[in-house]
């Protein structure tokens, strides 16, 4: 069967990573969480005390490190060189600066190259903010996931509670609003729906329904 690339974009908390992982597993494809790559750089920047506003310093830091994404049943296991940072990149400290780090053009150019390399053999599902527009403009299937900001915050809060992570709905809502603002207004590759992307509002859809719809769309193209 022909292999395709699938781009899934959308704002924070729209459920991209969950549905992208499940879709990839159903198709036997590789799932690549591009947000985890920006988070890995943010984690390293915090460790080295690099200013999130300093694009050139962030780029040299990025060039020094190898970011590896290993597929697992629960998503990507993330390594910076030999350190497993899978849990640490989800910390509040990383979340607070990641959208500042992802603003810089030099950082984005280098990340996009890495992501294109990972997708070069096709048979991949990438999720992020600029996959359909910048990373894989030729992707055979592009999905733009939406949900209201309140629904996205509620989902993130419930997910944290299930995982036993201390969680506060009001601060999650605030964080998501701030990241939406930074991600949609940045100068380089802002979060925007690609012209040929299919929009899906998941506010009233279950995860299974979203995955099923995406699977149907993928099968039409394979
Ligand atoms: O997907 P996730 O919420 O983990 O992404 C964290 C941050 O990384 C986003 O808020 C955004 O600033 C940045 N990002 C990006 N481009 C991508 C993926 C993530 O700018 N393709």
TrEMBL record:
ATP binds at residues 10-18. Residues 6-218 form the Cytidylate kinase domain. Keywords: ATP-binding, Cytoplasm, Kinase, Nucleotide-binding, Transferase. It comes from the Bacteria. It catalyses: CMP + ATP = CDP + ADP; dCMP + ATP = dCDP + ADP. GO terms for molecular function: kinase activity. InterPro entries: Cytidylate_kin, Cytidylate_kinase_dom, P-loop_NTPase. Pfam families: Cytidylate_kin. It is an enzyme of class 2 (transferase). Its EC number is 2.7.4.25. It is found in: Cytoplasm. Belongs to the cytidylate kinase family. Type 1 subfamily. HAMAP family: Cytidyl_kinase_type1. This is Cytidylate kinase.
């Amino acid at each position: 069967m022909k292999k395709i690339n699938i781009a899934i974009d959308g704002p924070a908390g729209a459920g991209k990573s969950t549905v992208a992982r499940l879709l990839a597993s159903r198709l036997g494809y590789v799932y690549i969480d591009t947000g985890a790559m920006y988070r890995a750089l943010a984690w390293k920047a915090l460790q080295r005390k690099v200013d999130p506003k300093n694009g050139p310093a962030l780029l040299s830091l990025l060039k020094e490190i190898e970011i590896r994404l290993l597929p697992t049943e629960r998503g990507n296991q993330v390594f910076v060189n030999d350190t497993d940072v899978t849990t640490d990149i989800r910390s509040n400290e990383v979340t607070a600066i990641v959208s500042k780090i992802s603003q810089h053009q030099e950082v984005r150019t280098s990340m996009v190259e890495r992501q294109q390399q990972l997708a070069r053999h096709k048979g991949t599902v990438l999720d992020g903010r600029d996959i359909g527009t910048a990373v894989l403009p030729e992707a055979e299937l592009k999905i733009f996931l939406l949900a209201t900001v309140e629904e996205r915050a509620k989902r993130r809060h419930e997910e944290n509670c299930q995982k036993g992570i201390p969680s506060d709905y009001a601060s999650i809502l605030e964080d998501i609003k701030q990241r939406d603002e930074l991600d949609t207004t940045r100068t380089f590759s802002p979060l925007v729906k690609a012209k040929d992307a299919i929009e899906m509002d998941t506010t009233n859809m279950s995860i299974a329904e979203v995955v099923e719809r995406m699977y149907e769309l993928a099968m039409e193209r394979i």
